[in-house]
Amino acid sequence: MTDTPAALREAHHADVSGGWLRPAVFGAMDGLVTNIALIAGVGGGGVSAHSIVLTGTAGLVAGAISMGLGEYTSVRSANEQVAAEVAKERRELERHPEAEARELADAWVARGLSRDLATQVAEAVRRDPEEALRVHVREELGVDPDDQPSPWAAAISSFLFFSLGALVPLLTYLFGATELWLALAVGGLGLFAAGAVVARFTNRPWWTSGLRQLLLGAAAAGATYLVGSLIGVSGGL
Description:
Elements: H1 21-44, H2 49-95, H3 97-110, H4 115-126, H5 129-141, H6 151-167, H7 171-174, H8 180-202, H9 206-236
Helix pairs in contact: 1-2, 1-6, 1-8, 1-9, 2-3, 2-5, 2-6, 3-4, 8-9
């Protein structure tokens, strides 16, 4: 079996532009941790199973809406900032093309190209205004102006995956069980599974990624359970 070089394959890198994967991962993890901690907190206070379900459902709905709106606003604001910087760079290229070409050549010289070669390439790029704009934006801002994440994709992805993550620790109650420890155990399994899935995109060992998420969630749940227990005891005095 021959080993085809990665450079000859059409798609040999994952999408790292931040379109849907980042908000999906963040949303799922946040949903899991938020509702596990919320359920642990109110459960530690000694409330009924019905109150836990009501609290967890309210947390799911409020958190999912907040995450969706936050992601939309964040990504759209970032895109608008990039657009403003691209417009600024376009004006500079129109007004001072020679200075911009020298700036581009200087950047390549700093990376190890010879002055003559860097100048020749910069002059060649300068002949095509749109390509010159793309190259200057990539070099100076570190972004691709033609490959910006969609705020709607980020918002919808975050909303859906937060909802799924937040639903996991509620499942045992929705199926009739009333033991807090069982809900927290299922939530812990969800955290471990989510971390293991993330490892698929990062090439980390699945078990270390899963264990990391489990420990972080356990720390949050332990803290809120302690607070809930203290408030519950105080409220009963």
